[in-house]
Amino acid sequence: MGVVLGTLSMQTKQVNFRTDKVDDELEMTMVCHRPEGLEQLEAQTNFTKQELQVLYRGFKNECPSGVVNEETFKHIYAQFFPHGDASTYAHYLFNAFDTRNNGSIKFEDFVMGLSTLLRGTVREKLEWTFHLYDINRDGFINKEEMTEIVRAIYDMMGKYTYPALKGDVPKQHVDAFFEKMDKNKDGVVTLEEFVLACQEDENMMRSMQLFENVM
Q1: What would the pLDDT profile of 110-133 be if each residue is shown by its tens digit?
Q2: Which residues of 192-211 are buried (b: 16+ CB within 10 A; e: fewer)?
Q3: pTM
Q4: CA distance 191 to 168
Q5: Which of these, 54, 108, 187, 209, is most buried using a 10 Å CB contact count?
């Protein structure tokens, strides 16, 4: 769980400070989206107006149109993990940010998710992470879903991070997670089981600290 949150922290921290040149031709050929007023976003998030302005400049640098589709998101995310394959994890992460389920992420979607991850309460952070793992959005996490995410994380980190990784390691981790989380042993983890297990496990709770004072 800490790896998931850590990689998210790394990605969001670096996106904020990227200064690549804007591709003017691309910007001209795409429909631009302007975000809601910063005052409204300031009221809806835990960011100040000045922080939102910095975030918006970074977002526009990466996405001149003001909207990110999944392929662009994957391309940006892959740059931070050159020794692994980040495409599958980026797919799940994109879906977690795409709260409107329309195949695109606007600045509002991005900053609302970022606000939760960086400045939200422990409960809010855990709820966001739960929804990342709940791939089919049925309100439960099963072993197959958790295995998909964990395997995607290992693929993304690559062989340089895990030189001795064996094929059954993701399954072993999932089995260990479920042993702690699935309190009633019904084969699925509910939001409340997930939150309770994380709050009871110091290692899981320690991962929450990765989002303190990142901005």
Answers
A1: 999 999 999 999 899 999 999 999
A2: ebbbebbeeeeebeebbebb
A3: 0.76
A4: 26
A5: 108
